[in-house]
Amino acid sequence: MKVLVDTSIWSIAFRRSIGKLSSNEKTVLDSLKRLIEELNIIIIGPIRQEILSGIDNQRQFSKLKEKLWAFDDLPIISRDYELAAEFYNLCRKNGIQGSHIDFLICAVALRNKLSIFTIDKDFEMYSKYTGINLFNTKETI
């Protein structure tokens, strides 16, 4: 099963020291490692950009960028952007705000029949209106 991994998960893996992780974060990291070992990771360009944004130290930026080269980007097509806009409008109509990238992630995942691996609770709200599937860490442990 292929899984689209959100920025919130990569952030745990790349930006936090392992000794300071909560038990939930350790479970998330174990699931991510398992997905990587099984070659079930999917990434898209906007997530890659989010991961790399805000890193002031050029050495750290280069190191992280190099690590991410292990994962190819899934192509995004025009229909994904259109569907993301539909999701944005639908959720907004129902009182749910979200970022354009979040809705693009939802659209790409739905079109490609991928689960989304995230700890961002906003995706739970999006799932009520978009039909996306969220990855459950218990699926790999």
Molecular structure report:
This protein has 141 residues and is of the alpha/beta class. It has a single domain (3-139), classed as 5'-nuclease (Rossmann fold, 3-Layer(aba) Sandwich). Helices cover 57% and strands 7% of the residues. A four-stranded parallel sheet has the order 2-1-3-4. α5 packs across α6 and α6 crosses α7.
Rg measurement, Å: 15 Å
CATH-assigned homologous superfamily: 5'-nuclease
pLDDT < 50 stretches: none
Structural class by SSE content: alpha/beta
Mean pLDDT across residues: 93
The percent range for strand residues is 5-15%
CATH fold descriptor = Rossmann fold
Mind describing the biggest β-sheet?
4 strands, parallel
| CATH class call | Alpha Beta
Features:
four-stranded parallel sheet, Rossmann fold, 4 strands, about 140 residues, 7 helices, alpha/beta, single chain, about 55% helix, globular
What is the element layout, followed by pairings?
Elements: E1 3-5, H1 7-15, H2 23-37, E2 41-42, H3 45-52, H4 58-68, H5 78-93, H6 100-111, E3 115-117, H7 122-130, E4 133-134
Parallel strand pairs: 1-2, 1-3, 3-4
Helix pairs in contact: 5-6, 6-7
What is shown here, in short?
By secondary structure, the chain is of the alpha/beta class. The chain has seven helices and four strands, in the order βααβααααβαβ.
